[in-house]
Amino acid sequence: MQLIGDVLPQPHKLPNDMYQCKRLTKALGMGYEKIDMCPDGCMLFCDDHVYKKKCLKCGKGRYVKVVNEDGDHVTTHVAQKQLRSFPMAPRFKRLFLSMKTCESMRWSKEGVRDNPGFIRHPADSDAWKALDEFKRLFLSMKTCESMRWSKEGVRDNPGFIGHPADSDARNICFGLATDGFTPFGQSAASYSCWPVFVIPYNLPPHMCMKYEFMFFCLIILDPEYPGPKINVMLQPLIKELKQLWYGVEAYDISLKAAYLWSVHDFMAYGIFAGWSVHGTLTCPICGVDTRCFCLEFGGKICYFDCHRCWLPSNHIFRGEKDSFRKDTICYEGPPKRLSAKEILDQLASLKLNEEKTAYEGFGKEHNWTHISGIWDLPHAKALKLPHNIDVMHQERNVAESIISTCMDFSDKTKDNVKARKDLAKICKRPTLELTASGGKLRAPEERSVEMDEKLKFLDGYAAGLKRAVNLKTGKLNGLKAHDYHIIIERLMHVMFRGYLPDGVWSVLAELTISIDSFVLKRSRKR
After folding, report:
1. Please, are residues 172 and 248 in contact by the beta-carbon 8 Å criterion?
2. CB of 363 within 8 A of CB of 279?
3. At what angle do helices 391-406 and 502-518 cross, to 10 degrees?
4. In the chain, what are the helix, strand and coil shares in percent, each to the nearest 5?
5. Which residues contact 385 (CB under 8 A, 6 or more apart)?
6. What is the pLDDT of residues 293-332, one digit of tens each?
């Protein structure tokens, strides 16, 4: 700061040091709170436990111990582990400081839709509408005796929302997103950082997903991934979510905000939602009604031919006997999706086993690892879609598997001897079964990789694929999720055309079109 100040012409108003800089930005509502945490993540030293010096569960000390000059162990006032909490209320208030953003924050209810038959904003979704139509009185449920209460009921405090009929266009619906990463690079010491982001959805479509309107609410720093103990770390967030449901004073209004859903990759989904994404009951939607099976030779859980049940009842694929699994037709409907109330009832019935390490029936009747704090929210019963999977991460997994298999990357290909043995047992594909010579699909020619090496894009559209192409090994290295997003939507059907059989290529082309339809700026309501 002093170096920059020496360069600027005098007199200037640049702060002299970081302390002055923090004082200047504090008035903007950008402060945060440090919360001491148990070294094992058992509890937070806040609220009633702010003066505790040891964990009430594991007994470990709160502060770091050092050896002084005399060789004695001395306890310092430096916490062994801390959590950074960024209050959401001041950041929501800042959205109403500017006239432009203040008007835009009403778009979710007052914005003009050019075609009501399309979904182009989260406010057009069924999840948002289910939250708006939540007809339970929260503040005093016993007085809600008839469905006429929304118009005739007496509000004990008009400044609070106890019912959707009291809703205001300025009330905020927002989403949460989190994922872990290594801040010091893969080659550095083991350490993970889990930021939790807030995305307010009241803004128009061209604004609500801009990074300028996203902000932190938590930063979790830990040498290991949080796992089920993320529930402890989310306690300050859940506490504030409950306060925002009741409302906080903001200028001339009582500002309310409600959690709508969360967005993660599949691994973070499992940690945040409390559902293990490993084993037979991996799918949180199917649950115990899953139709997956374990591969005899590969030893992995497989969902092959588990998706025909979602097709229309008269679809031609349902009657195909050998196009999918051997001698198998499908006329069953899809598994029933549990409502929020049914999930709450299921969570209420969970009991810990004798060892107190897991819930009874884990892996057989359910896959719950812990009860997420989201289900403690006042409007939990109104959450129609509490968690979402990030499409771009799924695109990366699918694209990487397809490219690695087609190009026969030895370390990532899904085509191996065990896979061919499972194929022969499950499917009717005589041309793909192992032969005496260990028959194998031939990888695409090198020219498909050369095309990637010569491709150029506009700035910001995609990373330079040239740096990821290795012509000697024929591999793509160092690609990120967004790069695979571009490959699977724009390049894959072009790069494989002429190198794969027409039947295989047409499937990849249809897959590209289908995935592209998932990420449209607007989609038709079903």
Report:
1. no
2. yes
3. 170
4. 35, 15, 50
5. 125, 126, 127, 261
6. 999 998 999 999 998 999 998 999 999 988 899 999 998 8
